[in-house]
């Protein structure tokens, strides 16, 4: 399993390409859809789905462009199924950099918490609200990594001052759903560099 991190847009939002034998999952295509598409086609990878850790504007800005180009389905948690088309919920209404306001069509599917299979990919969806009410993390236990979105960062945690955010809920999600993973599990966050569960247990000042 290969994990490629691609920071996109003015906030450097991490899009991830999870690739296995030339098939791929795209996670959080936040911006610069043409750049993302060119990279995927240059590597001759075939995406089969787009997964959203959550539906904030900086994670969905290129969603329709990428989904339409590859003709693939989109998955989001049910708590944020309405956020894709509403700038007042996805946050683009409140940021000058989000011009024009960012919207996307409805997702094709809603996540079910627990083990999931898409094509040849098997992983676990963990519900990790707090940064937003529909935030999820994708755990790949056989490869010892988790895509954590804007829940847990290297030395930090997600902000909770946007619609639906709650600090206590976020800390509980991290404690119960992420820090319970093995210490050597790599954490791929929504912004910034990767870290490990063990490192954040010891070094993260918010925990």
UniProtKB/TrEMBL annotation:
Keywords, in A-Z order: Hydrolase, Metal-binding, Zinc
Cofactor(s) the protein requires to work: Zn(2+)
Taxonomic placement: Bacteria, Bacillati, Bacillota, Bacilli, Bacillales
Record-annotated Metallo-beta-lactamase domain positions: 12-191
One Gene Ontology molecular-function label: metal ion binding
The record's section on InterPro entries has: MBL_Glyoxalase_II (IPR051453), Metallo-B-lactamas (IPR001279), RibonucZ/Hydroxyglut_hydro (IPR036866)
Q: What protein does this entry describe?
A: Metallo-beta-lactamase domain-containing protein
Q: Which CDD domains match?
A: metallo-hydrolase-like_MBL-fold (cd06262)
């Amino acid at each position: 399993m290969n994990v490629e991190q691609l920071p996109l847009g003015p906030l450097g939002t991490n899009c991830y390409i999870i690739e296995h034998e030339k098939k791929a999952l795209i996670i959080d295509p936040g911006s610069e859809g043409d750049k993302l598409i060119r990279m995927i086609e240059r590597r001759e990878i075939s995406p089969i789905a787009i997964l959203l850790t959550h539906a904030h504007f900086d994670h969905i800005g290129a969603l329709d462009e990428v989904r339409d180009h590859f003709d693939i389905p989109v998955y989001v948690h049910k708590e944020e199924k309405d956020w894709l088309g509403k700038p007042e919920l996805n946050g683009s209404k409140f940021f000058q950099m989000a011009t024009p306001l960012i919207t996307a069509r409805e997702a094709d599917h809603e996540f079910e918490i627990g083990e999931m299979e898409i094509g040849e990919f098997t992983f676990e969806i963990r519900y990790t609200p707090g940064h937003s009410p529909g935030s999820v993390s994708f755990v790949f236990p056989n490869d010892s990594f988790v895509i954590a979105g804007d829940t847990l960062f290297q030395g930090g945690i997600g902000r909770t001052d946007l619609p639906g955010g709650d600090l206590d809920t976020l800390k509980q999600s991290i404690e119960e759903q992420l820090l319970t993973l093995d210490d050597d599990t790599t954490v791929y966050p929504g912004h910034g560099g990767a870290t490990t569960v063990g490192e954040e247990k010891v070094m993260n000042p918010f925990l």
